[in-house]
């Protein structure tokens, strides 16, 4: 690749100011936990609060959790609109598309009003559910409780409180300790997000403010924070140099979310990946579902300098193309030793053998064969027992793919965005039962290798 003078300058500065030892980027708190050597990782987590998202994001997340008989309830929660019994219920996908196409469907002007309205609505729903005489009532009450938790988390307004709720009530070490009567600690990979670049600057806390907060929380708790990048940020190189400066490193890794409107091989990101490879900075990318994506249509993206137009008629199809694991091949061909984790391992739909994405799994495993520092985490997919079982079946196979999976698969939850779909404690319990004695590789050994902390 031929770099611009700005990029050459960035690389030169990065070479002078960024250490190539990942251990120099961990906080004292993380160091202590590592030294005690009695811990497990959650390799894929989010602790952003209500000021890091907007009404549309919340509505989309909430709808993603709506299934079967609960869809009408969620539609009512999100839009304030009752479903009349003679109207056919929309699919989750149709609901999400409606919100992307016409956000006016959402009655709330900002997140604070959405949260108070939804809180009242959930109280009402809970009362109604309690008075129901059908077998559905019990499930519905559980479902409403999960949504209440999300509202409550977002209301807190700080990443620190979201993290605390996660660590105390939902994290994997609690499940493991309960099962084994142990006292393991938790190390969390907490991923930042840059929604503002892809979503027209509609988020109250700026990218810079969110980064500052995530870095600050990570100094006080056993967290490895990831810096969210987007090629459209004009101050990306400047902020990156600050984030990883060896005198006062703020971040440990880098987070990508291509579905927000770019390809991994965007020429503006290539100098960043060059530095990540040279300096042992791990990357986490979203490589799963399409719930959150750019609104652009058609989408114009950059692949190694070439402008590509994605103009499929439906939003999901367009977003899916940005999330394809093979879009990382041009990057990995340039930077073969890049430490990369494909978040969600291609996605729950792929692990449920859905035709749209099932091809991703053999592709990812073939890529792992090619690139030694390529990993994948199973986060989010925990909500599907079918996905967990298909994962287990491949993991325990004694073939090439099974062997690679044993060495390169990581455990993660995708807290809190998984909450609308998942009873996280039960789902993690199921995952531990299914993966049996390989759980230690997934929650510890493989994560340490990926992070280059061995
Ligand atoms: Zn995630």
Give the tags:
TIM Barrel, alpha/beta, single chain, eight-stranded parallel β-sheet, 454 residues
Describe, in plain words, how this protein is organized in 3D.
This protein has helices spanning 5-17, 28-36, 55-64, 71-79, 92-101, 111-130, 136-155, 159-169, 172-180, 195-198, 207-220, 236-244, 270-279, 315-322, 329-334, 348-351, 360-370, 385-395, 400-408, 424-435, 439-451; strands at 39-45, 185-191, 223-228, 253-256, 283-286, 299-303, 306-310, 340-343, 374-377, 409-410. The chain has two domains: 5-49 and 164-451, Metal-dependent hydrolases (TIM Barrel, Alpha-Beta Barrel); 54-155, no CATH class. 49% of the residues lie in helices and 11% in strands. The strands form two sheets. An eight-stranded parallel sheet has the order 1-2-3-4-5-8-9-10, sandwiched between helices. It has a two-stranded antiparallel ribbon with strand order 6-7. By secondary structure, it is α/β, with parallel strands linked by helices. The model has no long low-confidence stretch (mean pLDDT 94). It is globular. α12 links the parallel β3 and β4 (253-256). It has 21 helices and ten strands. Bound molecules: zinc ion. Residues 44, 46, 191, 343, 414, 417 line the site of zinc ion.
What can be said about this structure in brief?
The chain is α/β, with parallel strands linked by helices and 454 residues long. It has 21 helices and 10 strands. The longest helix is centred in the N-terminal third of the chain and has 20 residues.
